[in-house]
From TrEMBL:
UniProt xrefs under Gene3D superfamilies: P-loop containing nucleotide triphosphate hydrolases (3.40.50.300)
Biased composition, class Basic residues, residue ranges: 283-298
Organism per entry: Burkholderia savannae
UniProt feature, compositional bias: Basic and acidic residues: 261-282
Top-level taxon of the source organism: Bacteria
Descriptive protein name: ABC transporter ATP-binding protein
Length: 298
């Protein structure tokens, strides 16, 4: 009996961006139906990895496959949520029309959608609990409500793999929990695979099957207990790292490096974002002093 195809697989892959190596000879596989958190410091390559899976960043060496097939642009098996754009907040376009633009492949203002597209838009709005947002303009919606519509967009066409790039940026803890719970519910209901990148592990702890941690050109994939450890993180950062577990939360302590600064900005990859806007939020003060060391909420 043949084994089911991996949802995605990297085989000795090297990725580079702007002359800098992001991943070096990385090999790992994610299985169908897994919820995987993608973590790492700014510039570790979280966005670059997702763009490589979308066929937008070519591998310098090795091979990347999605559902057993080589990566290609416009793969209908992949739904992609980019990092939240500040431009969305000022849009007067209705929620329903905004979702439909992803299906139509146009920016804004398409006068008519086909019956099939309209039915699919109805389906995804209901799936993410956003039917009540259909007629409301984006400018009147909260950050969490806009995230529901962005999730609805990337569910159009029934993809098998969701790539969610920093969907928790600029959200308060309650909205972060709501987004994670929504994604997990949809993922379980549809049986799809999710890669969910984030600056923080703790909001994802109850949803994750495994975590993919990127750092120093290296990728480590495993359970939280396997990856978020002193030996693994020290190797990824190239510097001594300690891990503490306090009241159900996980913290790391670093000596001479900054770990998970919580500035909720973007990786230095944002220079390659092809003109899209960005939201830049200021840090939320999670770093603490411990005898000359820095403690950070992972």
């Amino acid at each position: 009996m043949t084994h089911p195809r991996h949802a995605l697989e990297l085989d000795h892959v090297t990725l580079a961006l702007g002359g800098r190596t992001i991943l070096r000879d990385a090999s790992f596989a994610v299985e169908p139906g897994e919820f995987v958190g993608v973590l790492g410091p700014n510039g570790a390559g979280k966005t670059t990895l997702m763009r490589a899976l979308l066929g937008l960043v070519p591998a310098q060496s090795g091979s990347i496959r999605v559902a057993g097939e080589p990566v290609a642009r416009g793969n209908p098996a992949i739904g992609y949520m980019p990092q939240v754009r500040s431009a969305l907040a000022g849009r007067r376009v209705r929620g329903r029309d905004f979702v439909a633009t992803a299906a139509d492949g146009h920016r804004w203002g398409l006068p008519h959608a086909s019956a099939a597209i309209a039915a699919d838009v109805d389906r995804v709005l209901e799936l993410v609990g956003a039917t009540a947002l259909a007629k409301r303009p984006l400018s009147e919606l909260s950050g969490g409500e806009r995230q529901r519509l962005l999730l609805a967009q990337c569910l159009l066409g029934a993809p098998k793999l969701l790539l969610l790039d920093e969907p928790l940026i600029s959200l308060d803890p309650n909205h972060q929990r709501g987004v994670v719970e929504l994604v997990r519910r949809v993922q379980r209901e549809l049986g799809i695979t999710v890669l969910f990148s984030a600056h923080e592990l703790n909001p994802l702890l109850n949803a994750l099957d495994r975590v993919l941690y990127l750092g120093n050109g290296v990728a480590a994939l495993g359970t939280v207990d396997e990856v978020i450890t002193k030996p693994v993180l020290s190797r990824l950062y190239g510097s001594p790292i300690d891990v503490m577990r306090v009241n159900g939360r996980i913290f790391v302590m670093s000596g001479d490096v900054e770990v998970e600064k919580h500035d909720h900005g973007h990786e230095d990859e944002h220079d390659h974002d092809h003109g899209h806007g960005h939201d830049h939020a200021h840090g939320r003060g999670h770093a603490r002093s411990h005898g000359g060391r820095r403690t950070h909420d992972v």
